[in-house]
Amino acid sequence: MLRAAGLCIAIIVGVLMVVNASFMLGSPRAWFQLPGWIRAQGSLTEEKYGGGWGAAQVRITGAVMLAAVVWVLYELLTRRR
Length: 81
Known about the structure:
It is a single chain. This protein has one domain (2-78). It starts with a helix and ends with a helix. With 81 residues, it is mainly α. It has helices at residues 2-26, 28-32, 36-39, 46-49, 52-78. The chain is elongated.
């Protein structure tokens, strides 16, 4: 039962990370339009991180998040049991 609950939580967190990172990578301005509970922006503001170098930083962060998710999935699916 505890393992099933942990798996459900891991899936929810993974899906939220992929959605969040995809918006960050695709369009930082659109990312700022997402509800606060999805984007978990912390102290980032659209004025500072919506364009220019700030937007590049948001895109880099999104790319790193997606790479981390892909890496974890790869390790889970290719590891021998």
